[in-house]
Specification:
The structure is a homodimer of 602-residue chains. By secondary structure, the first copy, chain A, is of the alpha/beta class. Chain A is built from 19 helices and 24 strands. Chain A has a six-stranded mixed β-sheet with strand order 2-1-6-5-4-3, sandwiched between helices. In chain A, strands 9-8-7-13-24 form a five-stranded parallel β-sheet, covered by helices on one side. In chain A, α5 (174-185) packs parallel to α19 (564-583) and α10 packs across α13. The two termini of chain A are 31 Å apart. At the A-B interface, α4, α8, α9 and α16 of A face α4, α8, α9 and α16 of B.
């Protein structure tokens, strides 16, 4: 390893060696450029899949299978490379036979360590933006010219009636809207089905005090970032208004008060029959592609509890909680100790209820301020922007880190957090609250990626618990309900006028079971989690989130979702996959789909 | 003049000499740094006015009067300076006692030629954006906390009823909306009165074929630029939708279906009484500041024509024209040959009417494509953006050019245009159309700044006129109407089923006469034009647009308007003036207000 050469020169030299090897179909040389520990993560560019190859052998197998069709070329380091602790980092661009790509590499010594290749746009199917944008009007004079509004109205009247959409998205929250915007810009006719009356109602209909727990820099939608006065944490009604305005100005074909009530894959015609109910009546849509963007979770999980029928108070799932006003002065029991459980406890306390949280298992808690400072600041913050880390770069940097390496990077972060907020954690423990840092002490983000549950970003509840203002009963289950109380698994009894189950949601493919069939739901298998082998996310190791944003075992079926950041970034890849299929671009998929019986990655 | 020194070093040296002179109150030295021909244009920073000082003596007088209060400091060249044809150009920042500023300078040799100082923000009253943005939620737990929506609803219910706005803006088009957004971010309580039912209706209600004639790069609103797929020329309904979404997400206090029916200055209380009619009833608002943002023009100018009462066809002003469908196959006469006259003629032709344009005086015509290429590309285009000329920089560069110098820069541009499109002009002349390039051959933009009339950016009508598809009768007036025809001033008669007066609008202060009083309208005098001494814009020379965006002879009264670009840029200065007054920041105005008897600038 020569240290007298600049990082940019070293990255350039390495990349040109790789380029030469790939151009010559010399897989062996390409493999030899990587170190003994190495990762190549590909988002569509080589694999038409979302896939991490771990180790030289896996990289070699992938290249043997994909290199001829991919025909990569035009590799070029862009911006200056940097070096930190012996690791050189660089951005690059490249092309394939059908696409232009962006990537990121890390070298340790002179060997590749992490390598990210992503598809950015399809050649010949670029978005019409910047210098390629539409003119908006055809200059000249044309008899019976139709105005923008007339054309828009005619298109809206035809779509779904006389002309079938290529794609239907079930769910018009941020996931459906972000994907819908990408598809609109790519010219993929798409209908978004939203059961609520207005875009944004999926936020507006939640409890009054709900505010995004992630900061604004992490939450932008594609194309139209929030203006720079937007608050750090967006209140839910403001988010609703933003989504509604966004759907309007991005000209999405967004059907409100429209519920999908069933969907069937027509194998002969290779298209979906999607039954839709709207106020004006029922109709059937026949798209080639069907996307579930029904939220990061499946249907609400409402445990069956003995005695529910004799309980005299209010009893419901957290998804139906709208605010504490009606519970003023009442005795409330909240079952569940993750985000919504904490938020609802605080909201009830703020409205003067007497609140007890039933905590069934330990929770990872991190103060919001601490998470902003130690967790988000590097990629998503004003400081990051000032360093030139745009939202797009932050998304790609996050994507550049293979799942295998993440826990080891997260563990020291949570050690720092534990030390910094030791006082809060001591007081929570003192109050009887069960804390954990995840099975391998890798903290909140890994829990989010593994199961999406079991954590709370503290915006106020933890102080109330520590102070005894919110009582906590830990390590117990709710066993039964009586007329005015709940019975816990340790035999104790709590008086209760209202019981709220903040018990989370079923798996996302619960929606597929409900709307398509249990056979299809079983065939595709569960979503989310990456086979970490930790509780709730069993192996085998997959190295990527299951069934998210990529081809599944059922043709024409897709899951899109995740938080605002993942919805933003991965909507690009879902959109490119759909556009390629519509345009007839060959999309040879490398790697078997996830499924209940599928092995891990090769 | 030393040429071995970089442009940046020369600009830095010059600016530090100026800074030293100003810091030492040495007006004589400051004057000596400028050349014999020199201009200092100030937007608020020194003068709390919009004012161009022409020549060393005028600069000296301004400095004598303002230097002590302004206390300028911290002058600093930013970005690299450039040199072209012996002129060094540089950007700089500076501070005053109360504000931070941005500026631009041009040196010829070692002497100042043009010097622009603009106020960018008030110290202690900065917009809460970027790292200063609101948190959106107060972390912690608070009894009876009110949500964002509850606070917003309470504030909306109070404003104008139990709490008076500091400012009322009459007119909710792009001018009122842009200014409203600035005031919102500065925390100035403001109500925007819009007579239509929805924001954006001022565009939607115009004729169907209307499309912006200026390109998208020129048309952004503050804070929230159009996304990059937005068409070059925005169709009017799309513009309407954008304005509606913008007003919503910027949280403007925007009162729809609300008309101002009268306004009176209460001298004793030094506030306005503004009578408002809304569907729910009438009410009176009592703001300290009243802004007319009723459009770039005053009320429609509808000539009284003999025989109007016996004309059997349709007769109306262009502002009421909504589309040609109802005139299919009819004989139409359009009086007026500026933008709306041309657009309406084309729209009628496209709908199959037989159209004659009555052109009373010559028109400046430029093809849209040619104007984009030769007029806009340098400042407002993808090419300009690629060179780092952001919208803000483009606005400041345009502002940096004093009115005195503009015609000489415009004349050669129109000579190029005349040569490039010589064929079109020959064909138009052949068809009897009267062309001109303005009194001093300075073309379209100077006409826009002098009178806002007499030009057409060709998007299709000129080809129809050249081809004889739209007939033209030039150099004549409409003399009288008969039952089914019009009589022209040359004695000829034209059959007519419909007559449309595209005869423009009265002066902007016609709205003041109508809503406040003719006395106040006379006291402030007319708006627009800069005293060029050309037709419609009589002297004395003023060097700035009359009564636009700056203090007038009536306390608490302001005009805001102009096209989208001017509305965007100058809304900043109107907003800063209002904020300063609300906050009690001293605003000593240098220079007498415009008015009918006012002399030119000193």
């Amino acid at each position: 390893m020569r240290t007298d050469v600049t990082p940019t020169a070293r990255a350039t030299a390495w990349l040109s060696c790789l380029a030469e090897a790939l151009a010559g179909s010399d897989v062996g040389t390409a493999m030899s450029l990587f170190g003994s520990e190495c990762y190549w993560r590909d988002l569509l560019a080589f694999t038409w899949n979302i896939k991490t190859m771990e180790g030289r052998e896996a990289i070699g197998r992938m290249l043997e299978a994909t290199l001829a069709a991919t025909a990569p070329s035009a590799w070029k380091i862009v911006d200056g490379a940097t070096e930190t602790d012996g690791v050189v980092e660089a951005w690059f661009t490249f092309e394939t036979a059908v696409a232009r790509g962006k990537g990121h590499l890390r070298l340790r010594g002179d060997k590749g360590w992490t390598f990210l290749t992503t598809m950015a746009e399809l050649k010949g199917h670029e978005e019409r933006r910047g210098a390629m944008r539409d003119n908006g009007v055809t200059h000249g004079a044309f008899r019976n010219r139709r105005s923008w509004l007339e054309r828009k109205r005619a298109q809206e009247a035809a779509l779904g009636r006389t002309e079938q959409p290529y794609c239907v998205i079930i769910g018009g929250g941020q996931g459906g809207i972000a994907l819908g915007a990408r598809l609109k810009r790519l010219g993929v006719p798409t209908i978004i089905l939203e059961r609520n009356a207005r875009a944004g109602d999926s936020w507006r209909n939640r409890y009054d005090s709900l505010v995004l727990h992630d900061p604004v820099w992490y939450d932008h939608l594609p194309y139209l970032p929030f203006p720079d006065h937007w608050p750090v944490f967006t209140p839910k009604d403001q988010m609703g208004d933003w989504l509604e305005a966004y759907a309007k100005v991005m000209e999405l074909d967004y059907w409100t008060s429209s519920s999908c009530v069933g969907a069937r894959w027509d194998e002969a015609r290779r298209e979906w029959e999607v039954a839709v109910e709207r106020p004006a009546g029922s109709l059937v849509l026949r798209p080639k592609q069907l996307v579930f963007a029904t939220g990061s979770y499946g249907p609400p999980r409402m445990p069956k509890v003995e005695g529910a029928e004799i309980f005299a108070g209010d009893l419901y799932h957290s998804s139906r909680y709208v605010g504490g006003e009606e519970h003023r002065g009442k005795r409330a029991v909240v079952v569940g100790a993750a985000s919504s459980g904490h938020d609802i406890c605080t909201d009830l306390w703020e409205h003067g209820a007497k609140v007890t949280m039933v905590q069934r298992s330990p929770t990872t808690v991190v103060k919001s301020e601490t998470l902003m400072e130690l967790g988000f600041k590097g990629l998503y913050s004003e400081e990051a922007l000032a360093k030139g880390i745009t939202t797009e770069k932050a998304d790609l940097l996050f994507a550049s880190m293979p799942f295998r390496l993440m826990p080891a990077l997260q563990i020291p972060l949570y050690e720092r957090i534990a030390a910094q907020d030791a006082d809060l954690y001591a007081r929570l423990a003192q109050a009887g609250f069960l804390l954990d840092w995840g099975q391998d002490r890798s903290g909140l983000m890994m829990k989010a990626l593994r199961t999406g549950s079991g954590y709370y970003i503290d915006v106020g509840a933890s102080g109330l618990i520590a102070a005894g203002e919110i009582k906590v009963r830990s390590g117990v289950e709710l066993r039964a309900l009586k007329k005015r109380s709940v019975l816990l698994s340790d035999g104790s009894e709590l008086p209760a006028d209202v019981v709220i189950f903040a018990t989370g949601f079923a798996a996302m493919n619960g929606w597929v079971a409900q709307l398509v069939s249990s056979e299809v739901a079983e065939k595709i298998g569960p979503n989310w989690g990456y086979g970490s082998g930790t509780r709730g996310d069993p192996g085998p190791w997959r190295g990527e989130l299951r069934n998210m944003w990529k081809p599944m075992a059922q043709e024409g079926l897709w899951f899109h979702g995740g938080n605002l950041a993942l919805s933003r970034h991965y909507s690009l890849y879902v959109a490119l996959q759909l556009k390629a299929r519509m345009a007839g671009v060959p999309t040879m998929i490398y790697g078997a789909p996830d499924g209940p019986g599928a092995a891990g990655p090769d």
